[in-house]
Specification:
This protein is mainly α. The chain has six helices and no strands. Helix content is 86%, strand content 0%. The relative contact order is 0.09.
Length: 153
């Protein structure tokens, strides 16, 4: 069909960039596998920084951009973001467990959706790869969710 040909042509045209991205992601993955606790706490630290920056930006927006009732909602979210950032820095182990649990739930949901999508794509050649990807994503989410040590490996 025309839509499939357009997607296939676009993927073929940008193949070099997808290969480079894949290679870079493999390198980063190998570096992080060399020290899993470091990788975990790096993610927690990055999460804390992003929450703090988001909180400050929300407060700035509340004080300088918005007027009226929505101003207080933006300020409230700014304070909540700052509290989440502070919590990430003050309790990194708990934050790692919470983030890992959220990741596993997201993987399970994505795996279920991708698996259902694979069956909708059955008329298209290669739908089995989508099914395989969905089942693998689902299994990964379940494995992370049931493992007690998953935040630290």
């Amino acid at each position: 069909t025309v839509g499939n040909d357009l997607v296939r042509n676009q993927l073929h045209a940008d193949r070099k960039w997808y290969l480079i991205l894949g290679f870079v992601l493999i390198i980063f993955g190998l570096v992080l596998f060399s020290s899993l606790p470091f990788a975990t706490f790096s993610v927690v630290f990055l999460f804390g920084i992003l929450m703090m920056v988001g909180g400050v930006l929300h407060l700035i927006a509340a004080l300088s951009v918005f007027k009226g009732g929505s101003r207080w909602l933006w300020a409230l979210f700014g304070v909540l973001y700052l509290m989440a950032g502070y919590y990430a820095f003050s309790t990194p182990v708990t934050t790692a467990v919470v983030l890992t649990s959220l990741l596993s739930i997201a993987l399970i949901i994505a795996g279920v959706i991708r698996t259902i999508n694979a069956f909708l794509l059955r008329p298209i050649a290669g739908w089995g790869w989508t099914l395989f990807s969905g089942l693998l994503t689902l299994a990964t989410g379940i494995l992370i969710l049931v493992s007690k040590d998953s935040p630290f490996w």
